[in-house]
Design goal:
By secondary structure, this protein is an alpha/beta fold. The protein contains eleven helices and eleven strands. It has two domains: 203 residues, Rossmann fold (3-Layer(aba) Sandwich); 62 residues, Helicase, Ruva Protein, domain 3 (Orthogonal Bundle). The chain is 35% helix and 20% strand. The strands form three sheets. It has a seven-stranded mixed β-sheet. The chain starts with 8 loop residues before the first helix and ends with a helix.
């Protein structure tokens, strides 16, 4: 027995005949010391709900509960893991809401009556899509009004670097601009691949994301999204060329924004992109 009163995760996996499935992007952490570290980095879990995606056999779920989570909504697409998760729920009455379904089709704010934290070892194959969905969900009636208090998410290390990068960093791109425009981001720590079962071929990392009270600078989200898609879609091109697909006069646009026409997207700050987004409708 472990110190949470439940059997070791390896025993749970063996008893239920569970194996990771590549189609779900599954890699499990069985060391509760690691999952508890992730849970602690998420902040105070006692005064809000927690949403977890892809819990698998429940390693992170148990870590969250051991660190005092008030209530956890776990969303699992793989029905094989539901019985193991229900066993955890029986040990922690009224603390776990087990949902079998596709996380891409479920909005976290519909699960919790108040502010919540998202803490997940995300499936590699849908991690970025989930993050962008959650950022989009933060907009209510044209205003940035996120209900999440924080997101503490495991990605492949390269993806975590793309989320937290700043201008002139080789990992800086569209994802970094959109995430940091709306949130404070931090690459919290790396997770060695040897702690996973099965062991992935890449190192993972935890990104911690907290929403800003207001976006870093004024811009319309749809315009900024289109602008960054064009700018970073052809990274090797100067902006005067890459912006032609969305702008009839990129040279004039860049001149009015005070940006060198020979600049490439990776050198622009988020303020620069927001300035361009505000001016773009006139061009």
């Amino acid at each position: 027995m472990h110190d949470d009163g439940l059997p070791p995760l390896r025993d749970v996996i063996n008893r239920h005949g569970l194996r990771a499935d590549k189609k779900f992007g599954q890699n499990f952490i069985l060391d509760l010391n690691v999952t508890r570290r992730i849970a602690r980095h998420a902040g105070d879990l006692t005064d809000c709900d927690v949403v977890e995606i892809g819990p698998g056999p429940g390693g992170l779920t148990r870590g969250l509960l051991m660190e005092g989570a008030r209530k956890i909504h776990v969303i699992e697409a793989d029905s094989r893991f539901i019985p193991a998760l229900q066993e955890i729920a029986e040990t922690y009455p009224d603390k776990i809401n087990v949902i079998e379904g596709d996380a891409l089709a479920i909005k976290p704010q519909e699960l919790s009556e108040g502010p919540y934290r998202i803490v997940s070892n995300l499936p590699y194959n849908i991690g970025t899509a989930l993050l962008t969905n959650w950022l989009d969900d933060g907009w209510q009636n044209g205003a940035w009004q996120p209900q999440f208090l924080s997101m503490t998410l495991m990605f492949q290390k390269e993806v975590a670097q793309r989320i937290t990068a700043q201008a002139n960093d080789k990992h800086y791109g569209r994802l970094a601009v959109l995430a940091n425009w709306l949130c404070h981001t931090e690459l919290a720590f790396e997770v060695d691949r040897q702690v996973f079962v099965p062991s992935p071929k890449v190192t993972s990392a935890i990104a911690h994301i907290e929403p800003r009270n207001r976006p870093m600078a004024e811009a319309q989200p749809d315009i900024l999204a289109n602008l960054t898609a064009a700018a970073f879609g052809q990274r090797r091109k100067m902006l005067r060329a890459s912006l032609k697909q969305i702008c009839s006069d990129p040279m004039a646009l860049l001149a009015e924004a005070g940006i060198d026409e020979t600049a490439r997207a990776e050198v622009l700050t988020i303020d620069d992109f927001c300035k361009l987004a505000r001016l773009l409708p006139s061009y």
